[in-house]
Design a protein that fits this description.
Structural class: alpha+beta
Number of domains: 3
Largest sheet: 4 strands, antiparallel
Number of strands: 6
CATH topology of the largest domain: Serine Threonine Protein Phosphatase 5, Tetratricopeptide repeat
CATH class of the largest domain: Mainly Alpha
CATH superfamily of the largest domain: Tetratricopeptide repeat domain
Number of helices: 14
Order of helices and strands: HHHHHHHHHHHHHEEHEEEE
Low-confidence stretches: 1-24, 216-224, 330-339
Distance between the termini: 76 Å
Strand order of the largest sheet: 2-1-5-6
Length: 339
């Protein structure tokens, strides 16, 4: 009697497990049907039920995370789901899908401002699929924004190799070259971008023309005053030539650098705040401790700019000043991206 009852209980339990497995499979399939049909609310409902029934289903977690990120703009919820997904997908058996999952995870972390986590996720996506140009392009942008210019250049070149018709790869390359003072290569990259993107050709051509002017005017070219998204950039009183003159007049060449005949360009990042004040000067790319410190000191003394604005309202603006140290001569180049 006890044995029969135990067998009955065990049989019932096995039937429940089998039903749960069958039901879970059906839920995932229904979720995929809805997802492929663009019925994201319904798909999310099915995937939520699936991960509740089968928490180890990394595919369901991945699609749930993608929906939360792309359709609901819920970066935190997406990150949580995608973190579960990467922990349950067999990378050896399905490397392309695992790479895509890491790419979605990168998107969620980037939205949350977790730059280190986003970069790690992209590294993993590329580790698993080294032939997707989007992965390299996005990593190039991350490196560029962090002023890791060598890494940005390498990734942009790889992205351009994989996606030779994508203008943004050459735009990133051009900006990377520009920040390294490699104006001739930057001009070539921006002109290539202009041929690939007719709608933005004028913007790219204008940048190339300004760089060409910069090379022929000893570094004192005026900047474009409006970005592609309509933001009016900060303006130093009197313009770029006045800024160059101020730096040249106030720069004190360190004796240690004179003794060692050290020259070069120090790139100083700063923020022009809504009042036009120069704040947070830091070395983005330096030469030596003495020249780096002097470049930061001079930038710190700059008088207020006319602040950047967007739709008539003042905004904070990321700004970079490249202070060029030449024995007996100093020059500046400046660029800006609105925040």
């Amino acid at each position: 009697m006890k044995l029969s009852k135990r067998l009955l209980i065990l049989g019932s339990f096995m039937l429940l497990c089998a039903y749960a497995a069958w039901a879970g499979k059906q839920l995932f399939d229904l979720g995929m049907e809805a997802y492929n049909a663009g019925q994201y609310d319904m798909a999310l409902n099915y995937f939520n039920q699936e991960v509740a029934a089968t928490p180890s289903n990394g595919y369901a977690w991945a699609y749930k995370g993608s929906i939360l990120l792309r359709q609901y703009q819920d970066a935190q919820g997406a990150a949580d789901a995608l973190k579960n997904a990467v922990g349950h997908i067999d990378e050896e058996k399905d490397a392309p899908f695992a790479a895509w999952t890491y790419y979605e995870y990168y998107g969620a972390l980037d939205e949350m401002g977790d730059k280190d986590g986003a970069l790690t996720a992209l590294d993993n996506a590329i580790r698993l699929n080294g032939n997707d140009g989007d992965y390299y392009q996005d990593r190039a942008i991350l490196h560029y924004n962090n002023r890791n210019l060598a890494q940005a250049e390498a990734d942009a070149l790889r992205a351009a190799e994989l996606q030779p018709e994508a203008a943004n790869n050459y735009n990133i390359l051009g900006r990377t070259y520009m920040h390294q003072g490699r104006n001739a290569e930057a001009i070539t990259a921006f002109e290539k971008a202009a041929t690939l993107a007719p709608t933005n050709a004028e913007s790219y051509s204008n940048i190339a023309a300004k760089l060409r002017e910069l090379d022929t005017s000893n570094g004192f070219a005026e900047r474009d005053t409006v970005t592609a998204d309509g933001a009016v950039l900060p303006e130093f009183p009197g313009g770029a030539k006045a800024l160059a003159a101020y730096v040249k007049q106030n720069l004190q060449y360190p004796q240690a650098a004179i003794d060692t005949q050290t020259e070069g360009t120090v790139y100083v990042d700063c923020v022009i705040d809504k009042q036009g004040r120069v704040t947070k000067p830091t070395v983005a790319q330096g030469i030596s401790p003495e020249l780096d410190a002097e470049a930061v000191r001079v930038v710190s003394t700059l008088p207020p700019f006319t602040p950047a604005s967007l739709k008539g309202k003042p905004i904070d603006c990321n700004f970079q000043i490249a202070v060029r140290f030449r024995l007996g001569d100093t020059k500046t180049i400046n660029t800006c991206n609105n925040k």
